[in-house]
What does this fold into?
Amino acid sequence: MCEKKDGKVVSFINMKGGVGKTTLCREIGYTLNKKFKKSILFIDIDPQANLTQSLFEKYNLLPSDLYNDLPTEEQKKIKICDVSIGKLFDDSKHFPEISDIVVDLDEGTANDNKLSLIPGDLETVFLERSNSGAKAESALDKFIVKKGICDKYDYIFIDCPPTYSFYTTTAFNASDYYLVPVGIDPYSVLGIDLLEQVVEQIKENDFRRFDSKTLQNMGIIFNPINYISNPTGSALFNNQKNSIKNSKKLKRYDFYYFDNHFEFNSKYKKDLDYFSIDKNNRKSNTNIISITQEFMDRIEFLNSNKDVEGDSNE
It folds into this structure.
């Protein structure tokens, strides 16, 4: 019998696109699983479903409609996967079982170290028109609680779209923390500030839920996508980073800024199934392992603070 977990739900989000949010989500999660032997559930709530496409490519999965279009020889290499997050939001009275929406990616892996995915679905782009209101926005949180998902995984990672929408509220309602990847440009400050306004509004709109539930910014991690490692590029990166950290607009939030930034690797964009920890790239491996270790340390620190606050309120 596997040990009961105390999983934490973390959303990866920024109101500004093109900051490597999905890449960072999958790399930290995959490294936690392969290097640190943690059980991980990815949840792809972004209608673009880029996280799903990456993991499907890695594990040779396809939905049946795409599978059926393949030549026979290609079909032999592929497994059909028709589970998706869309089934969580349909209008039927049947509340989904775990097997209806979760696929285990490493079949045969022990439960203590499993890697799973709730796949995204391009058709969820239509959901926002038909799914509004508290019931739909609480569906993911309800699923996580009712099915004991946090007892089964060490971490549950939600990849969010860069918009304030039904998906954002759904993700935040289910999350304990959120991590904010940011690029190095003047507009980053606006994206971060806008996100915090969104969080404040979501908490205000559902104040009863968040009176007893924590939703906390666990940190900002810099992802200088176009950063070039030379003296000029390094100076520019440090100047922009310090400008963001010292911004008057952001001072009131008292953010934690990750010591490690995400190193640019062109393979992340070129190859859907490129996962750093599987490759013989010392620089990228060292970088993602350092980020992942800092991520775990940060979670542990925040959880210990919660315990102290809980004791003081008793």
About this structure: The chain has 15 helices and nine strands. The longest strand covers residues 216-222. Residues 282-313 form the longest helix (32 residues). The beta strands are 8-12, 40-44, 61-62, 79-80, 103-104, 115-118, 155-159, 177-182, 216-222.
